[in-house]
């Protein structure tokens, strides 16, 4: 049997679901019957996790650049901060003062702004790490 026919057969029997769902026995599954439920030894393979991350990075870069097209001219560290924040928040559209500070190179003010938000209290160390990166333009030592 050809690989394409097998794919179609499995899809016919398993279905194709774009979100996590519970199968007929209550185990978490995704895609075409891919078991991800830890209770049954399921998981996503590392290469799939990496592919999802690559996809998500590209999608969040698009979202960032739709709000702040000038962000592509930033140094790699500060650009990464904005992509990370967009990844976490969904959009930076609600942060016009912060974006203005970043656009004009007021790194210390932008970092201070980040630290003073409700978001910072919600994400803790992540916000502090990103604020330090914004302020210094340097990657954290642990990377």
Q: How does this structure look, described?
A:
The protein has about 140 residues and is mainly alpha-helical. The chain folds into two domains: about 5-40, no CATH class; about 45-135, Orthogonal Bundle (Lysozyme). Helices cover about 60% and strands about 10% of the residues. The chain contains seven helices and three strands; from the N terminus they run H-E-E-E-H-H-H-H-H-H. The protein has helices at about 5-15, 45-65, 75-90, 95-105, 105-115, 120-125, 125-135; strands spanning about 15-20, 30, 35. The protein has a three-stranded antiparallel sheet, with no helix packed on it. Strand 1 (about 15-20) and strand 2 form a beta hairpin. The chain is elongated, with a radius of gyration of 20 Å. It starts with a helix and ends in a 7-residue tail after the last helix.
Q: Please report which band the strand proportion falls in: under 5%, 5-15%, 15-25%, 25-35%, 35-45% or over 45%.
A: 5-15%
Which sheet architecture does the biggest sheet show? 3 strands, antiparallel
Mean pLDDT across residues: 96
Output the radius of gyration: 20 Å
What's the N-to-C terminus distance? Answer: 46 Å
Note the overall shape: elongated
The number of domains is 2
Treating each run of at least 4 consecutive H or I residues as one helix, how many helices?
Answer: 7
CATH class label of the largest domain:
Mainly Alpha
Provide the low-confidence segments as ranges.
none
Lateral strand order in the biggest sheet: 1-2-3
Structural class category: mainly alpha
CATH topology (fold) name of the largest domain: Lysozyme
Helix content estimate: 55-70%
């Amino acid at each position: 049997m050809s690989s394409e026919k097998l794919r179609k057969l499995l899809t016919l029997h398993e279905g194709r679901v774009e979100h996590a769902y519970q199968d007929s026995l209550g185990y978490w599954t995704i895609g075409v019957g891919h078991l991800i439920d830890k209770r049954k030894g399921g998981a996503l393979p590392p290469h799939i996790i990496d592919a999802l991350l690559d996809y998500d990075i590209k999608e969040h870069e698009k979202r960032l650049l739709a709000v702040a097209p000038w962000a592509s001219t930033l140094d790699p560290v500060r650009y990464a901060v904005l992509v990370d924040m967009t990844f976490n928040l969904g959009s930076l559209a609600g942060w016009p003062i912060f974006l203005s500070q970043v656009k004009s190179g007021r790194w210390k003010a932008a970092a201070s702004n980040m630290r003073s938000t409700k978001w910072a209290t919600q994400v803790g160390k992540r916000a502090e790490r990103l604020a330090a990166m914004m302020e210094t333009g340097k990657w954290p030592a642990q990377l």
